[in-house]
Write a structure and sequence with these properties.
alpha+beta, Thrombin, subunit H, Pdz3 Domain, six-stranded antiparallel β-barrel, six-stranded antiparallel beta barrel, 5 helices, 21 strands, 21% helix, globular
């Protein structure tokens, strides 16, 4: 005798099988995600230290500060955020294995919000360095810190935006930190200076600030910041060139844009008195086209050219003024805080 099955029953069985299959796929995906995060956490927790510092404040009293740092070398170099160790010369670093080490601040660069410390009698497990320039929006990242020495803190999320920026200041000098990483991996109190790593545990950023509810910012580890860190380890400071202008992006007049085959330039808004730019003859409302043969269309382009190697080296500046294209020579000086 044949068995009759209604179409509705067949469809219900099919939907049940699909839901069961989807739950299995979701479970596998969750297991894979968890495996990556736990693997990274197990490796990184031993490479991230908790920092405690004391600062002498106006009035003579001592203020306590705390943050995280990441081991760079086996012999004691650690990277952290400059604001974590601001105003301090030394401190203590607590490691996940229970050790507590004294450290001294080797160098700070407030304009990149990076600092390097060196712990005494250290035998550290260094982190592997990655390249933040290869990150993609949506990529898995893990934030690892060691707030208050509480055996480590781990949060996971994705790169939610790239190319962010934030301003920094050191005395009278100011700078925009570029290509900052934005992530939804939550940053807990005391996580500043901790590690932001990719799915393979490679350091791609140094956690620096909370950008809003559920959003954190990290200074990228790339070719530019590696140079800064190397200089801090070697010399205790990072030297930058300075020409002495404030400016911003401005569209070029259509005729000039067509001739030069570019759309924008840097308009000089202010020229500092007795600065290299003033001596070179740059004026307010000049439109800077290129510097040393490199096109500039915004302040970030100009900032990227103010590297250590430019200090004391004559650079040709092409600028548009009153319908005329000028060539001026500027000799950058070292930026002083």
């Amino acid at each position: 005798m044949s068995v009759i099955q209604f179409v509705d029953a067949l469809l219900a069985d099919s939907e049940h099988d699909e839901r069961a299959g989807q739950r299995g796929v979701d479970a596998e995906a969750l297991d894979a995600y968890s495996a990556v995060v736990t693997s990274v956490a197990e490796r990184l927790l031993g490479q991230v230290a908790s920092l405690r510092v004391s600062r002498r404040m106006p009035g003579g009293y001592q203020a306590q500060g705390a943050g995280s740092a990441v081991a760079l070398t086996p012999d004691g170099f650690l990277i952290t955020s400059a604001h974590v160790v601001e105003g301090a010369r030394r401190g203590r670093a607590s490691l996940a294995d229970g050790r507590e080490l004294r450290f001294e601040i080797v160098g700070r660069d407030p304009l990149s919000d990076l600092a390097v410390n060196r712990a005494s009698e250290a035998d550290l497990e260094p982190v592997s360095l990655g390249n933040a320039d290869r990150l993609r929006v949506g990529q898995l990242v893990v934030a690892v810190g060691n707030p208050m020495g509480l055996a480590g803190s781990v949060t996971a999320g994705v790169v939610s935006a790239l190319g962010r920026s934030f301003p920094t200041r050191d005395g009278s000098a100011s700078r925009i930190v570029e290509n900052v990483i934005q992530t939804d991996a939550a940053l807990n109190p005391g996580n500043s200076g901790g590690a932001l790593v990719d799915g393979q545990g490679r350091l791609v950023g140094v956690n620096t600030a909370v950008a809003g509810v559920g959003l954190g910012l990290a200074v990228p580890i790339n070719q530019t910041t590696r140079k800064i860190v190397a200089a801090l380890m070697r010399d205790g400071r990072f030297r930058r060139a300075y020409i002495g202008i404030a400016g911003g992006r401005r569209p070029l007049p259509p005729r000039v844009a067509q001739v030069l085959d570019r759309k924008g330039a840097v308009e000089v808004v202010e020229v500092a008195e007795a600065s290299p730019a003033a001596r070179a003859g740059l004026r307010r409302e000049d439109l800077i086209i290129d510097v040393g043969g490199s096109p500039v269309v915004d302040a970030g382009d100009l900032q990227r050219l103010m590297v250590t190697e430019a200090i004391g080296r004559p650079l040709t500046v092409r600028a548009f003024r009153g319908g005329e294209l000028l060539e001026l020579t500027v000799v950058p000086e070292e930026l002083q805080g």
